[in-house]
Amino acid sequence: MSRFDIVSPEGLRVDGRRPPELRRLSCRTGVFAQADGSAYIEQGNTKCLVAVYGPREPSKRLLTEKGPTINVEYNVASFSSGERKTKMRKDRRLMEIASVIKQTFEPIICYGQNVASRSEIDVNIQILQLDGGALHAAINATTLAMIDAGVPMRDFVCACSAGWYKDTALLDLNHLEESADVPTLTVGLLPKSGKVTLLSLESRLHLDKFQSVLELASQGCERMRDELDSTIRKATQELAKTAL
Amino acid sequence: MDIDTAADATTNGASHFTLDADTFRKIHPAEYNRRFISQGVRADGRPLQRFRKANVNVGSITTANGSSMVRLGNTTVICGIKAEVTEPTPEAPRAGFLVPNLDLPALCSPQFRPGPPGELAQTISEYINQICTSTNLLNLDDLCIASGQAVWVLHADILCLNYEGNALDAALAALIAALWNVRLPKSTYDELEGTVRAAATNTIPLVLNRLPLAATFGVFDAQHLIADPTDQEEPLLSSQLAIVVDQEDNLCGILKEGSAMDRERMVECIGLARNRAQALRRLIDEALAKADAS
């Protein structure tokens, strides 16, 4: 095990949080004028920016008729983490995350009246600073940016991660915890129906613990929903004020 | 039907075919801008030779050795500098490296596509690189840890978050502000093990010899000189002129593209560029002072 305790004897984590506590969260929508919709999320030290372009005319002929095509471009700034990473042209890890996000959003976009089924939506995600939980920050920010762009969706997609250490479930892991031996489960939830759209686990977690980790992560998603909802409401009120 | 006359017709209500201002701008951008500029004002409300409002912020990326964010109007760029240890070349055993790179991702504007860096991003990166070498921006020997063994390489990654024209001015200002904000850790070279040991805290600032800053101008319709063109205006300009001036009013670079331009006009631009560079430098100073205080 590492030099430090993931959870101290007093029940505190490395950054001073209690196990079921989220990091400080701040979100904004409509950050940039160029994009049709944009959002910025800061969760602890993880900073994520999303710009949505569209729905617009597809750049090439698309074969699908089952709803709009979503293109996700996921980028991590080279100065975002401790070690500098040079970006490869085809970084598999980045492509995998992009595809996860694409598949999470594709089924929940309503199409028909407002969004033509053959249209195209480009989602550009830029991680500016990385301190764990990049995937769930990216998903939450994408939800906000989609709403800001006026893309009709069945529900919010709220994501949160949770892990297990010794005998406690930890919510919203930071980089230190992720890179130590803590198994990380990222959950994407549709809060209205309570259904899970995304579940991602890449390390060993005992079956008996799974239920409680999932439970905690879902609670995190619920809280995330409240935050996203109030952000959207605030932004809409601002918009209404300027319109009057 | 001619579109210009259609737009005129809206004013006297003689036609059923009406165009609102936004549609007119999209289908006939040159004429739309011409009507503004011929009246001595730009489509965004600025006088012809006024630069957009600038805003500088440093040290917001805590994972980088130095960072800055610069806004010119809505053009937003962020620059993060990461220091790494590398081997020097045999020709210059004490010289470190500064590697600036500008990225214009698909995120920042609908005009850019995902994929390898485009022509604009590469041209500007190269121009900034040339300015860094030719102005002797840093004493590269300051980046030496052990002669012939280990030096610092500074990767300056400049990322555009929102592109509303004139990336060069913003990128160069962001680079200078971020370099000024860089703190390197104290480091020693271990001869026996052949490794570098760096202190945990970043404490040593860089010494910048010059503070070159750019100001870009464009010529519209071969007669109107406009400063700090936006992305709407850029494709309509017949020529562009970028002037780089340092803190002692030395010219550090001029880049003139497009069709021919009067000499008097160029002199006029140089005067304006000097004021703009001074104003930007003041903003960078203020941002750095603010970051030091907090």
Distance between the termini of chain B: 62 Å
**Overall tally of domains of chain B:** 1
Shape of chain B: elongated
* SS-derived structural category of chain B: alpha+beta
Total helical segments of chain B: 6
CATH class of chain B: Alpha Beta
Instruction: Give the overall average pLDDT of chain A.
Output: 88
C-alpha end-to-end distance of chain A: 60 Å
CATH fold category name of chain B:
Ribosomal Protein S5, domain 2
Number of strands of chain A: 9
User: Which homologous superfamily in CATH is the superfamily of chain B?
Assistant: GHMP Kinase, N-terminal domain
Described by the principal axes of the CA atoms, the overall outline of chain A is globular
Query: Mean pLDDT of chain B, as a whole number?
Result: 90
The H-and-E topology of chain A, N to C, reads as: EEEEHEHEEHEEH
Hey, roughly how much beta strand do the residues of chain B contain? 25-35%
| CATH level-two architecture of chain A | 2-Layer Sandwich
* Helix fraction bin of chain B: 25-40%
Describe this structure in words.
The complex is a heterodimer of chains A (244) and B (294). Chain A is an alpha+beta fold and 244 residues long. Chain A is built from 4 helices and 9 strands; from the N terminus they run E-E-E-E-H-E-H-E-E-H-E-E-H. The radius of gyration of chain A is 18 Å and the shape is globular. The termini of chain A are far apart. In chain B, strand 1 (54-58) and strand 2 (66-72) form a beta hairpin. The model of chain B has no long low-confidence stretch (mean pLDDT 90). In chain B, the strands form 3 sheets. In chain B, strands 1, 2, 3, 4, 5 and 6 form a 6-stranded mixed sheet that branches. Chain B is 30% helix and 32% strand. With 294 residues, chain B is an alpha+beta fold. Chain B has a single domain, classed as GHMP Kinase, N-terminal domain (Ribosomal Protein S5, domain 2). The chains are: A alpha+beta (244), B alpha+beta (294). Chains A and B meet through strand 3, strand 4 and strand 5 of A and strand 3 and strand 6 of B. Chain A: One of its GO terms (biological process) is nuclear mRNA surveillance. Chain A: InterPro entries: ExoRNase_PH_dom1 (IPR001247), ExoRNase_PH_dom2 (IPR015847), ExoRNase_PH_dom2_sf (IPR036345), PNPase/RNase_PH_dom_sf (IPR027408), Ribosomal_Su5_D2-typ_SF (IPR020568), RNase_PH (IPR050080).
